[in-house]
Amino acid sequence: MTQSATPPPRVDGRTARSERTRNAIVDAHLQLIREGDLRPTADRIAKQAGVSLRALWSHFADMEALFAESGQRVLELRDASHRPISAKLPLPERVEAFCKQRARLLEQIGPTAKASAVKEPFSEALQKYRKLHMIRVREEMATVFASEVNGNDELLNALTAVSMWSTWATWREVMGLSVSTARATMARTITSLLASA
Q: For 165-191, how does the pLDDT look when each residue is reduced to its tens digit (9 = 90+)?
């Protein structure tokens, strides 16, 4: 006689509904930002999510808590679309691969980066996520260009700065460069910095 398999754990319906509502609110927040609403109000977010304002506040203590969860979601989306670049590739191939991927990711986070810039001076959560993005880019550059950087913090600082959203926004929005031209500018700058080392 065979022993029956252990039944799967039961999922509490209320917990599942609560999680769905919470995710819908975060999704709505990010969707409004992607559509150009850089300062969506709680009321607009609730309407976009299809929930009441009361439901929004029952899931998030304040807007700062929503910023924190939305920031985490942006990081997760970035991680899901990021592909490691081998440090063993020839330098021109590494620069090209890094700049191609970086341009794609910067275009992807563009709307949320702009929205964050509006509120960041008043939000610890947004300041924290900006630093996390910077740390991730810095660590990636230290890995991808390890043999060239070779412990040179000044060089690593410069490489990180030209790879961040603020520089990309200057190229794309202030100077009006196309994605391909901005990407080529990034590649030229990184190549020059590495050559100077």
A: 999 999 999 999 999 999 999 999 999
Query: pTM of the predicted model, to two decimals?
Result: 0.80
How far is the C-alpha of 41 from the C-alpha of 25, rounded, in Å? Answer: 12
What CA–CA distance (Å, rounded) separates 70 from 67?
A: 5
Q: Whole-angstrom Cα distance, residue 102 to residue 134?
A: 12
Domain boundaries, the chain: 13-60, 71-196
In the block, residue with structure tokens 């009361």: 54
For residues 42 and 65, what is the distance between their CA atoms, to the nearest angstrom? Answer: 12
The CATH class for the domain spanning 13-60 reads mainly alpha
pLDDT band at 41 (very low <50, low <70, confident <90, very high): very high
Instruction: Say if CB 149 and CB 98 are below 8 A apart.
Output: no
146-161 mean pLDDT: 96
